[in-house]
Design goal:
alpha+beta; 4 helices
Length: about 170
């Protein structure tokens, strides 16, 4: 099965399930679904930042300060957050990510409910080569400096702005 074939729950503006569709169809038709975003910090508090590969279905080659991805059909946000963090970081045995907040990302063409989490990753990371083209743990000050220099995923930027506004 390819990522485009993965079945997702389609949700309404209140995050209630109204149907299911393959990921590729959901993206192509702009169907609202669910995603988990995880801010991963190392033992020193630095944030895992990466550049997405050119083959990603959404926002290829852009930088992101969150790992994560879609929530599968019938999957909880919490389960997806742990699964996605371990998959993208290439680790196992992470502590359960801590939920921070949820928001609706909608850019007029794409829309998804986004549950944002934070996790401490003190394990050596081995990111998936088909997902992550470059990575590093950056101090928060450097990440802030890079916001004006690098091209970032718009949903990640929206989550980051909400995180900063919340004082976390």
């Amino acid at each position: 099965m390819t990522p485009a074939d993965e079945i997702l729950d389609i949700v309404d503006e209140n995050d209630e399930v109204i149907g299911q569709a393959p990921r590729g169809e959901a993206y192509a038709r702009g169907m609202r679904h669910r995603c988990a975003f995880i801010l991963a910090r190392d033992a020193e508090g630095r944030i895992f930042v990466h550049r997405r590969t050119t083959t990603k279905l959404v926002f290829p080659s852009l930088y992101d300060m969150f790992v994560g991805g879609v929530v599968g059909a019938g999957e909880s946000y919490d389960a997806a957050a742990l699964r996605e963090a371990e998959e993208e970081l290439g680790v196992s045995g992470l502590p359960r990510p801590v939920p921070l907040f949820k928001f609706l990302y909608d850019n007029g063409e794409q829309s998804w409910w986004s549950a944002v989490y934070e996790v401490r990753c003190e394990l050596p990371v081995h990111p998936q080569a088909d997902e992550v083209a470059w990575h590093d743990f950056l101090p928060e000050e450097e990440l802030e400096r890079r916001l004006g220099e690098w091209e970032w995923t718009p949903d990640g930027l929206a989550a980051w702005q909400r995180l900063r506004e919340s004082g976390r």
